[in-house]
Prior knowledge:
The chain contains three helices and two strands, in the order H-H-H-E-E. By secondary structure, the chain is α+β, with helices and mostly antiparallel strands.
Amino acid sequence: MTPPVFSGIRVSAFLAWKSIQRGSRGTLALTIMIIALIFVNLVFLPPSIISGVVVTFDTQSIDFDLGNLVIEPPREGNRYIDGVDGLQKKIEQIPGGITGGTSPRITAGATFFYRGGATPRARSTA
């Protein structure tokens, strides 16, 4: 006696074979072509889509949020960089380096309260 799993597969294969015999060869060819296209779509396209999303995310992070160069305070205790104007001028004088200009930003942790519950946020840029 065959297990129920294999009998289900045998029944499915039998019904598929009878359907192919009753159908036209054009329908069979179209069905095989559609299944092949679905296979190619699932195997080859997702890596390129994901890599495109990663590149776009990196580009937009650099263009709109972080920039090409991030300078942080020298020690853990300091929250600010002293002499930002002088440092900013030095960075802008680097030949061939910064094309879009520079901007100082303050990044700090924050917690948002909503109806008595706290939602911690890791970083907030002002």
